[in-house]
């Protein structure tokens, strides 16, 4: 597993879990806007980035165990865990399995269950048959809101998406297809911030709010004019939400 640490080695640990089809560079825009005194930990999930690409399919339990192993190896306890999309599903699974590892939870653009098995199987078949480029345009149209799509950064993110090994992407699609956290997530009792993008068509705000409502006391923040990856589209605003949560301040819709 490819793991990277930034910030203060003795600071409060904040762990970031990436979306499907991305690597740890997903958070590059957010980290510079976070306060000092944080130990910032990122990794490439299996099949992505610089991590190994074992044969799929993968299970969500395996992805959760990967995160668990990384945190145990780094001696992390009581971290703030930030997960977007599939990273948010990993976050839910890890919080249920190892509550000692997570003190506070940030769930961004995710859900207790995402999509239907048939949809994920279509993606698996497409990338295994025709490669990542065959679905890139459709995926990026769901990733980003209208404002970001009008910028010149779409080509960069399309290129990064197409770098993902098809076997790794397909493996993680299978993990999402088989995951249902409605019952486990409803057992969680920890401070939680749920972040949604107003233009997210992959995990729409109502789905994100429904997931937040499973956790008593969870806060909900809506980032307007953002799609599925507000950490990329609006990194300064995303960092501001995260900073307020880290520092224990009140949250609000953006």
From TrEMBL:
Keywords, alphabetical: Hydrolase
Signal sequence range: none
InterPro entries with a match to the protein in the record: AB_hydrolase_1 (IPR000073), AB_hydrolase_fold (IPR029058), AB_hydrolase_sf (IPR050266), PcaD/CatD (IPR026968)
Annotated ranges, domain AB hydrolase-1: 13-234
GO molecular function (one): 3-oxoadipate enol-lactonase activity
GO BP, sorted A to Z: beta-ketoadipate pathway
Pfam family, any one: Abhydrolase_1
Superkingdom, taxonomy of origin: Bacteria
A GO cellular component entry from the record: membrane
PANTHER family, per the entry: AB HYDROLASE SUPERFAMILY PROTEIN YCLE, MONOACYLGLYCEROL LIPASE
Protein name: 3-oxoadipate enol-lactonase
